[in-house]
Amino acid sequence: MITQSYPFADLALSRRLEMAEAYGNVEFVKARAKAFPESRATWIEVSGTRAMFDGPNSPVSQTFGLGILQPSTRKDLDEVEQFFIDRETDVFHEVSPLSDQTTFVLLNERGYSPIEFTNVMFRPISSNLVLSATTNDKVTVRLTEENERELWSETAFRGWSEFDELADFLRDLGKLHACSSSPSFLASIDDQPVATGMLTIYDGIALLAGASTIPEARRQGAQLALLEARLQYAAEQGCDVAMMCALPGSASQRNAERHGFRIAYTRIKWRKSRYDNE
To answer: Are the beta carbons of 228 and 245 closer than 8 angstroms?
Structure first.
């Protein structure tokens, strides 16, 4: 295995990571607006902060980048909050701890509550990357072709079938995937699709998402093969850093660390009820 140096987890890296995730969410909202015009999905940018609306109950309806590119002002937050209030949804911000410190003063002043923590993880990548773990030779991975988008969506839905609370959200993935420009990947065993993965590329960052394996094919190396294939593909597209997110102490974090990912920082999700201003 080739040893690579890790970039320092500083403000510059956090800006790249946060903007990559913001870009991925904006692209998702654009796909939603194209596939489901009645959804009123849309987004705005306010002083570097990206605010996305994907529906009142969607996990995508929130902001990224608050205070990371420049200090946010009270006027900025007024505009962002009104964006969500006008769409009858609560206000959520995912905020890096490396954001300008005035950000946290403003959030406390305005009655926000921290509700969730996420470990933002990263690792360097190159085109000759090979993961140290042993892969299953029966697993093959390929980029999803245009005529396989529905197949990808069906496979992903089966893999996420236990998440009943996201059923409606996941059921729309087929049409959303068809409108998305992000590369996606299918893993197969004996020519039968069993797992999926997605990739967002922005500013040299490869954001990994969309990992799903159908229940009967788990623990057979499909996600490991997908991870390696996506990292190699991203490096070939010019990326030098891969990114993924996980709940602190979760199995996802443990698996990521096994494959060379480190925690860059722990991000906090803040919430304010749309009724707080009434």
So the answer is: no
Which residue bears the tokens 């390696």? 228
For residue 232, the one-letter residue type is Q
Q: pLDDT tens-digit profile of 86-129?
A: 999 999 999 999 999 999 999 999 999 999 999 999 999 987 87
Return the DSSP state at 146: G
C-alpha distances (whole Å) from 202 to each of 20, 96, 241 are 5, 18, 10
- Residue 93's DSSP bridge partners are 63, 270
Sheet strands side by side (includes 262-272): 42-46, 49-53, 62-64, 91-95, 262-272, 113-124, 241-246, 205-213, 192-202, 184-189, 139-143
Domains and CATH numbers, the chain: 11-119+267-272 (no CATH), 126-239 (3.40.630.30)
Query: What's the Cα-to-Cα distance from 194 to each of 67, 118, 185, 276, rounded to whole Å?
Result: 40, 27, 11, 45
DSSP-derived letter for residue 70 is S
| This prediction's pTM | 0.90
Helix/strand/coil for 11: helix
List all residues 6 or more positions away from 249 whose beta carbon is below 8 Å from its beta carbon.
none
Are the C-beta atoms of 1 and 132 separated by less than 8 Å? yes
What residue type is assigned to position 163 of the chain?
A: F
